[in-house]
Amino acid sequence: MNEWTPPILIGFRESACDPASSGMPVANIFDALGIAVQDCLPSQSWALVQRRSAEPADAEQIDTLELVRPDGVKLSIDFSSGKARHRAKEAGKGIQPLARALGAPGYRKKFGTLPSIIDATGGLGQDSWALASLGMPITMIERHPIVHALLANALARAIEHPDTCEIASRITLLAGTAEQLLPTATGQVIYLDPMYPERSRKKAGSRKGMQFLHALLGPAEAEAGARLLHAALQCPVDRVVVKRPRGAELLGDTGTWQGQRTEMESPNTRYDVYHCR
């Protein structure tokens, strides 16, 4: 097994772009991330690229941030078009098993509202976006600065789009590790979706987004998952929900857990629900 080495990124900004138009609360995203900028798009290294967006004429112009691998494969996060927008219009179809695990039907029946969710492992934001499309307030935590920048850029563009601004307004994005931020984050349910270990035999067929996350974050570590779950279980929330592959072992050592734990399954996924109070 090869040792993981994080990629070194080079920055590139298209000539039409304004350094301050990335949607981030900084004057220059590359300076903020400590990334050197080149005059031409590098072909043999990873690059964070700022491109001019094709936004509606009445929307504020916000450039798109895009991560490009040396092989030319690109990744950007877009909540205002494509599959994400379709999922929003479908009002969360496909996310219902997770919504049930988070206790949404019970909250609605008992309180007439939906629970507020802390997504402690933001990733590419698909689950947070789908849950927000159902009406849930979301606090999303992302620890990697590049992934956080891509998420912030996507949310800034979604806020400016008339079809997605309401959903985007329900999401608060925080930068940092979950262990640091969970004690002060506000929410009724914590959701954990730690990265699954990468399977080398299926690497070529794995989703593009997961390939990028594995390259940026490194291989999934059982110890890190255990620490994350331990931190979540210390928080004053109603439940902690952990997403796992169906048939996988529990995340971390939960032998000391004295509370109730239930499971909910969908075709390829299991949700472990820790009832905290």
Description:
The protein has helices at 29-33, 82-89, 96-101, 104-111, 126-133, 145-159, 165-168, 178-181, 208-217, 222-233, and strands at residues 9-13, 37-38, 46-51, 64-68, 74-75, 117-119, 138-142, 171-175, 189-192, 239-245, 260-265, 269-275. With 277 residues, the protein is α/β, with parallel strands linked by helices. It has one domain (78-275): Rossmann fold, CATH 3.40.50. The protein is globular and about 60 Å long. The chain starts with 8 loop residues before the first strand and ends with a strand.
Outline of this structure?
Its main location: cytoplasm. This protein has 277 residues and is of the alpha/beta class. 29% of the residues lie in helices and 21% in strands.
What are the defining features of this structure?
single chain; 277 residues; alpha/beta; 7-stranded mixed beta sheet; 5-stranded mixed beta sheet; 12 strands; globular
Summarize the topology.
Elements: E1 9-13, H1 29-33, E2 37-38, E3 46-51, E4 64-68, E5 74-75, H2 82-89, H3 96-101, H4 104-111, E6 117-119, H5 126-133, E7 138-142, H6 145-159, H7 165-168, E8 171-175, H8 178-181, E9 189-192, H9 208-217, H10 222-233, E10 239-245, E11 260-265, E12 269-275
Parallel strand pairs: 1-2, 1-3, 6-7, 6-9, 7-8, 9-10
Antiparallel strand pairs: 3-4, 4-5, 10-12, 11-12
Helix pairs in contact: 2-5
- Domains (count): 1
> Please, what is the average pLDDT?
86
In CATH, the topology is named Rossmann fold
Strand order of the largest sheet: 8-7-6-9-10-12-11
What is the chain-wise order of helices and strands?
EHEEEEHHHEHEHHEHEHHEEE
Tell me how many strands there are: 12
Unreliable stretches? 200-205
CATH superfamily: Vaccinia Virus protein VP39
Instruction: Please identify the top-level CATH class.
Output: Alpha Beta
